[in-house]
């Protein structure tokens, strides 16, 4: 990859000289979102395009065709994403520049930025810096630069999405991030949200990145995008014909074999080819005679560093010093910073900068930059160690005086020799604390950087390790947290510090779904007698939830009670609330529905009155679940809706997949299968965006159940394969979420014997753990039917006994009594009990449960009216699997459903979304109109586009207009 210098060439001829560099006196090298510079522009400068297409994209015709097609589609209304991957210097940046030029020619707005390694410490700086280029198009993104974006993550991303949707509704947009592996963590999270969310809008994303030894948030996001279907372009080295074309373009003449022999020695890397040939030209070893270039001289450059040194030596002594000194800056630097670093006066500096712009430096719009970071590294390598350390000490002072982030100052201090280490560690630690809330992975990396700088036996090392482990836990980097934590534990710590460290490890394992390990770490922490009640309460709270997921219900309840008691006594209210929610889970699993609701109400009351960390535990999640189990669907919907809105206001991203999970289960219980599927699908997408894979597993279980109900067994099998893949990593989940969905799929496929074997645990555990019945009151009837089909009346009897016991324990639950009557009626062939089951479920809002009992009661009494009623319910709910079965058994077609003249291929829920989108509403506006989450609307729209085989919102609008007769 060759970055052109300030003197660009056109068709091999130099462009006219400029009067002088148009640089601000003190540009902001960070382009912070709330600190705009007057001359801030995309790092990918606009006038570079002339060289891009003529000089720098040789051998990339296929890639350029892909880019042109994509951008033409965007101009026509399509959205999407393209990821370019390859090693440094292979030509990614030039394809990026070509994309910018093509987009401009097509009339697209362009938001472009090159990310830098130091972006990692400045949340949202990458995307905000790119969108700065669009501010002149309107005021859509002005809030990014006035400080109003300083809110929680969720709110920031929500505002950014709304701004982009509004902008794209008026003009197609290309968003470009070069060196995207250095994206900051919040920008990377926003990209995971925004790329799929805006897929139906005319927004195209182009990311260019290269592999790094460490999995940065940016690199993880690029790989996530590719796994999700983003078009990848993997760039390799140039072939010989392309090298010949490139060489001729660089020198402005045909080239002979002496030139090609050297160029081919650069390994097909276009950056190295360009720099080599420019160095040969600068050292007068490249001569053009009769229109053909040849190489003369005996001592030729043999490496990239040599070529850069050749260029350096062609410059004046003052400019050489400027270039070498400023190579300590890894970002664009300002004239004032260069003046202070080199000791030259301002007037002299402008002359030296102008000379440097001929080959090595470039005007980056927001400062002076090296033509490529590899060039900077090559120059940097020419500095002796002592000089390098002195320059970094001065650069640290300059960066501090300019008010740049602590991470940049610390980077210079760390490279300034041993004396700077202490200050650097303190600054890194402070920087980690500053960004921990918005970017825990970045904060963890800062702490790890500080640890690397500390001597092995430094007295502060163990304290820093404890802090780093907590941050790694928050970032769900479990293996790394465990390795680092065990290192500190082996070194020996005081009781309180060790307990805090073990708490961090327990939380890390819990967040990753490794619940057994979480229990082990919590137990080790609780083994210390001399720790405070607040720490003990937090350990008990984590232990309670982890024990629930390893099926130790009694232990979970006891730990939850300890967490609540100690948390209230020590004012650790977050632990108290979390302990109470664990007790609610346990009570519901044991079939004590009243107790489940009481614990959830208590937790909700504590959170509301105490606020702070307690409020961020969102006990409304478990309150909604308890109300759903009690058939109080309206209240459950209100509680879940209010809780989700509060979660969005507070920015607690971890809770988002859980809201989707419990709301999907509520919708499924209502029989609203399309809405439930969209909700669960959105939950999977959200959890994967957050890399919360432990929450993906139960959501996939929900999708399997829903797919079986809808008769889409292929989709169910795909979800099952993904669930198994995740569980092989050590994630654990409740049997109701993973075993039951698989058993339902096997039963639907006609493999009832395998389903019976797989579900064997339920037949034995239901008396002590009737959670499956409270979650799905149709389950006892299905289990009895499977057992009877295998000739095992004893197993069927255990199900009936457990369900009847649950009904006695919860006399107010019509669903529990209906489930008991249904199971007993099937076991004993008792029509009276089946009629009783029908009557019970008529008193609940559980429509599919009613349909299931109607089907069995109709078979027992040969009631065609009940068959017809059941068939009508399942048809209306979209339960295609049950519909087909009923049609086979009853020999009738489903009741005639009035066909919509508009978009008949869509479900009613999808049609509502489609019509609003066709009327010009954005996804966020549709979400507000229909009281849905924005992720649910996104999911509906993906399915709508797939069913209608379209890619653009305008196509949907035209289709609706045509069908309306417009």
UniProtKB/TrEMBL annotation:
Q: Point to the regions of Low complexity compositional bias.
A: 33-42
Gene Ontology BP terms: regulation of DNA-templated transcription
User: Record's InterPro entries?
Assistant: AAA_16 (IPR041664), P-loop_NTPase (IPR027417), Sig_transdc_resp-reg_C-effctor (IPR016032), TPR-like_helical_dom_sf (IPR011990), Tscrpt_reg_LuxR_C (IPR000792), WH-like_DNA-bd_sf (IPR036388)
Output compositional bias ranges, type Basic residues: 1-13
Task: Tell me where in this chain the HTH luxR-type domain is found.
Answer: 899-964
Instruction: Give the residue ranges for region: Disordered.
Output: 1-49, 882-904
Q: Name one Pfam family in it.
A: GerE
Q: What is this protein called?
A: HTH luxR-type domain-containing protein
Q: Name one GO molecular function term.
A: adenylate cyclase activity
Database matches in Gene3D superfamilies: P-loop containing nucleotide triphosphate hydrolases (3.40.50.300), Winged helix-like DNA-binding domain superfamily/Winged helix DNA-binding domain (1.10.10.10)
The entry's cellular-component GO terms read: cytoplasm
CDD domains assigned to the protein according to its UniProt record, in alphabetical order: LuxR_C_like
Q: What keywords sit in the KW lines?
A: ATP-binding, Nucleotide-binding
Q: Which organism is it from?
A: Winogradskya consettensis
Asked if the record carries the keyword Nucleotide-binding, the reply is yes
